[in-house]
Amino acid sequence: MKSLSPVIEKRIESICAQADALFDDEKCEAALVAYEEALSLLPEPMEEYEPSAWLLSSMGDVYLFLEKYEQALLQYEHALDCVDSEDNPYLYLRIGQTLYELHRDDEAAESLYEAYLIEGEDIFAEEDPAYLAFLKSKKTLPE
Known about the structure:
Order of helices and strands: HHHHHHH
Radius of gyration: 16 Å
Number of strands: 0
Largest sheet: none
Shape: globular
Mean pLDDT: 96
């Protein structure tokens, strides 16, 4: 993982705080613009810098909220390609949920199962119970 200068880190954190507040207020388009601004501060290849995964997943969350599932999926999958993200249960959960919404059931079940294997049932605690029910209908879950 590559390091950012403290100045860039602080700027990204500030922009993200604004973006998160905009998203909380359901000002989604403005939140996306802010997240993209923060992403633009990362040098290339951006995937080698720690903030890239959470910035991309935050954008995915906005698109998921907007029910723009294809765009959400692109963000989450890109986030998986970022440093230290290959075993991130949150990303697998969101990819699975997005695939479920796109009616890509086999792929959705695989991603949700991966999230479950990493984090257990706890990863579903704050989510719509339909996702865990779907997973249980498709896979035998370990105890």
